[in-house]
């Protein structure tokens, strides 16, 4: 399994985008609709034309295929390699199946940066909204699982406001106070939903998850929503998620934990998502320690073959010299043995920005000046 480490780059003014690219996660540089620099009369005129165009009520933000390739977009942040990424995810199962134990285990591993089974974990602050619990139960449960060694990066709340009633403000404030936040667990989704209205409709289900996804994408964190499955079975286990398909439709992915019998200590965890491969994991619940253990994986994860070009680019920056910037032509000159045009190189790097992060801990940024386009490579040496 590859060790993935990613980091978000600085966004630019928001623009509506398609699936997989949230309005808040904007490209590092936008070409057609980027604000022109106003250093002379000509550029001032272009700046005015730009503002006039985007202020039109009929304005529709579009990008061409060429612009798409020429833009470096921030990649998804890996929370748990090949298992959990930034975005909004559902974690569903029958009542009392062991979901809360799993959430406690997950939060502890992420807050401490401890591998979960065979999956590398990237350390960050965790907020666990245990809205069906009390602090005394949490205290006993966690001490039974992990002993009495504490961690300052794992925070709990047993009460919160609801979505549309102040929850978004509470979560925004938490992420500002703890900028290294990687995971927010909401246990359960039902506890933070508004009362009344069109609850239970596809539109309402879709909107609930969409609101939380916007927040997750804005801060490049994962919001994990604990939810229930219905009693009726289905050929596709993801169709047993309580509610309409709007929940899964708006989410970036979902986990379903299910048992053949409620009294069993064995369970199956099915995983599906936009940014990770579908998986089926077999788990065993250790009743003495109250933790889930991985016993078998049915799915062999596909690993992308090594890209020699990315390997060569990765060699340009080192822990001693973690930053490099220059033109694409200058970068080509450093890559001995590669016959590639500068614009093709830039596009290859843009398309593979996620691999540069995940495999080499390198961020790529593109900026445009009067002299042309500048490429900047930055090594995140803290993860090397």
Brief characterization of the structure:
This protein is an alpha/beta fold and 384 residues long.
Keywords:
Rossmann fold, nine-stranded mixed beta sheet, Arc Repressor Mutant, subunit A, 11 helices, three-stranded antiparallel beta sheet
Q: Which strand-content bin applies to the residues?
A: 15-25%
CATH C-level category of the largest domain: Alpha Beta
Distance between the termini: 17 Å
Report the count of strand segments: 14
What is the residue-averaged pLDDT?
84
Low-confidence stretches: 1-24, 28-38
Number of helices: 11
CATH architecture of the largest domain: 3-Layer(aba) Sandwich
3D shape: globular
Residue share in helices?
25-40%
What is the succession of H and E elements? HHEEEHEHEHEHEHEEEEHEHHHEE
The CATH homologous superfamily name of the largest domain equals P-loop containing nucleotide triphosphate hydrolases
Main sheet properties: 9 strands, mixed
Strand order of the largest sheet: 5-4-6-7-3-8-9-10-11
Number of domains: 2
CATH topology-level fold name of the largest domain: Rossmann fold
Classification by helices and strands: alpha/beta
Rg (CA only): 23 Å
Please give the structural blueprint.
Layout: H1 41-54, H2 65-69, E1 78-80, E2 84-85, E3 87-93, H3 99-112, E4 125-130, H4 135-146, E5 154-157, H5 167-177, E6 181-187, H6 202-219, E7 222-228, H7 246-250, E8 253-258, E9 266-273, E10 279-286, E11 291-297, H8 308-314, E12 323-326, H9 328-334, H10 342-351, H11 353-360, E13 362-369, E14 372-379
Parallel strand pairs: 3-7, 3-8, 4-5, 4-6, 6-7
Antiparallel strand pairs: 1-2, 8-9, 9-10, 10-11, 12-14, 13-14
